[in-house]
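Name: Beta-glucosidase
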Amino acid sequence: EVKESDDPIDTLPSSFRWGVATSAYQIEGAHDEDGRTPSIWDTYCRTPGMVFEGDNGDVACDHYHRMPEDVELIRSLGVDTYRFSVAWPRVQPGGRGPVNHAGLAFYDRLVDELLDKGIDPWVTLYHWDLPQELEDEGGWPVRDTAYRFADYAMLVFDQLKDRVQTWTTLNEPWCSAMLGYAYGRQAPGRQDMPAAISAVHHLLLGHGLAAQRMRAEAPKPIELGITLNMGTSDPATDSELDVAAARRADGLGVRIYMDPLVHGRYPADVVEDLAARGIRIPIRPGDLSVISAPIDVLGVNFYSGHVFAGTDESGNDRDADGNPVERAVPQGHPVTAMGWEIVPDAFTRLLTRLSEDYPGLPMVITENGAAFEDEADTAGFVRDFDRVDYFNTHIGAVARARQAGADVRGYFAWSLMDNFEWSYGYEKRFGIVRVDYDTQVRTPKQSALWYRDTIKRVRGH
Ligand code: GBH
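Structure predicted for Beta-glucosidase:
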């Protein structure tokens, strides 16, 4: 008698899409080659105290020069799809004007190399590397940046649309807006909440403008979407203060993006909360119909789930500026090297909730993964069983969400290889492939072998 597997991963269909993901600034290096100009990240890295040990993306994984080798590495993992991002300051130096052919040619070669090896390219147009010149003119808080983004998007789209079917406009606008303009934790490092809320709107507008134009000029059906980082926001207790804090966190984390994208309106409670702080979303007539241009796929990036209290440690429900408090309360779960709690069950709940609140929108997990304190042996091999466990439980969580009715069609591991982890520099490693930054040698970790075998098993159903 053959025992049926009770691993939820074995319920995934053989048609499930598997991939690995990266982003341009995190892997490419070659920061000043072939006409590339600085992005806000080049500037931020050169600002003392902003990035761990003053690291930057000047060389990173040197992917720009090692691309064919890296595509071969991707092929060896047995994935269907590779999700990468295009660097705006390579394709359109300075953020406006004509295309820079030398910069765009890199992505042309990358796409050809992928197709040659039987790997589908999945292009993300913007993964945080805004041309510095556009930031100097105000950045995402300024409306014109949305139009600049749509123009840039079309330069890339026109070149690659004959070979690329799947497109993501923006990666994680929450990070661009909040970490970049409200909390100063990422480039450009501003701390201005009203500016951040303007950035939210202009990011969404840029998405919608690009989506409309891409769809109109697509030579064949395309698969178009946006990627959001999302988690769960649960109240610490059922007190009114905690419930309201969790609602506000969810409002700015999920609904301020999902509601305009899907329903063409901002959530009333979020608009009210912002108004109470004297902040207005700079909506102009017609914007919301642009933002809600139909999409085919929602990219979901999941890392952790959160619990919120409406009071600070001393019990106050207002901060120094008089704004209501939302304090993330650790739940004592095991954490990754980032200090992020490991809560796979929250992943199932998030996906189930999204499928209920925003029905009819297929989802793909465009990022999920974890940093751990890797130790390489003398051959450079990392026995990262903690990362294997993270992937195993989180892919299982996706499978459970599917069983509960969520329409999730694929999963991308973050990340193909160790890379520049933004403000954490090279200290934090998310790769399933180890990168030795002295030699640039790539060595698949235990997790890469596990991922390859898991894909093979599910495909064979
Ligand atoms: C992604 O962002 C990025 O797309 C990618 O470039 C990056 O390398 C990767 O994740 C890893 O960081 O402190 O528990 O409250 C992740 C967005 C937003 C996820 C903040 C974690 C805080 C978790 N992150 N969030 S916690």
